[in-house]
Amino acid sequence: MAETKTVKFIIQRQDNENSAPYEEEFEVPYRPGMNVISALMEVRRNPVNAKGQATSPITWDMNCLEEVCGACSMIINGKPRQSCSALVDQLEQPIRLAPMRTFPVVRDLQVDRSRMFDALKRVKAWIPIDGTYDLGPGPRMPENKRQWAYELSKCMTCGVCLEACPNVNSKSSFIGPQPLSQVRLFNAHPTGEMNKAERLETIMGEGGLTNCGNSQNCVQSCPKGIPLTTSIAALNRETTFQAFRNFFGSDRS
């Protein structure tokens, strides 16, 4: 009888946010085309480690399973990425999994990404309109602006760029490249532009643009290929103009 092919995983585990991390090895039956998520689901179905000992199921976040929601971000072989699109056949083995350390660990591979969502609230990453009655069609964006704005809108709030950025850590208040790029996106919208000055002044303060070290790790790691550094450069220009407006007391945007 032919021997069943297996895939070895070394997973960094943590029982809760206050406990120490530890590693546990698992061997999962191989299937052609399997991704990291399907391997984790196999461990959850049969939570037995490589030593044959029964253990607790692995905890992680997931949702869409097609690299759209951004929930399943983790460190795979030393790099932050989406586990749903990480194919076992394309990974060096043994495959090492760990949680993103930019965010507090909840348990195992599950992290609390509140830091990123709080930053989006801080920069007002939305378009405030009154939806209680029909306002009619909104203003149209020029096609050339719409095209690059669409690239920014691909962001799925996965947190990979924050994990890759050396300036985003527990000792820094830097909001990171993702919220900054969203400032550029919503400031480009004809309706969102109403709050342009407010957003710019927010990122001119503590934890904003000046905390960016221009390592460019973010744009290299982004799973959607979003031009994050281009947005940061454009915002540096916009905040310079905003500083002049503030100095000379102009209300023009």
TrEMBL record:
Its cofactor is [2Fe-2S] cluster; [4Fe-4S] cluster; [3Fe-4S] cluster. Keywords: 2Fe-2S, 3Fe-4S, 4Fe-4S, Iron, Iron-sulfur, Metal-binding, Oxidoreductase, Tricarboxylic acid cycle. Residues 146-177 form the 4Fe-4S ferredoxin-type domain. GO terms for biological process: respiratory electron transport chain; tricarboxylic acid cycle. Its EC number is 1.3.5.1. GO terms for molecular function: 2 iron, 2 sulfur cluster binding; 3 iron, 4 sulfur cluster binding; 4 iron, 4 sulfur cluster binding; electron transfer activity; metal ion binding; succinate dehydrogenase (quinone) activity. InterPro entries: 2Fe-2S_ferredoxin-like_sf (IPR036010), 4Fe4S_Fe-S-bd (IPR017896), 4Fe4S_Fe_S_CS (IPR017900), Beta-grasp_dom_sf (IPR012675), Helical_ferredxn (IPR009051), SDH/FRD_Iron-Sulfur (IPR050573), Succ_DH/fum_Rdtase_Fe-S (IPR004489), Succ_DH/fum_Rdtase_N (IPR025192). SUPFAM superfamilies: 2Fe-2S ferredoxin-like, alpha-helical ferredoxin. NCBIfam families: dhsB, PRK08640.1. Belongs to the succinate dehydrogenase/fumarate reductase iron-sulfur protein family. This is succinate dehydrogenase. The gene is sdhB.
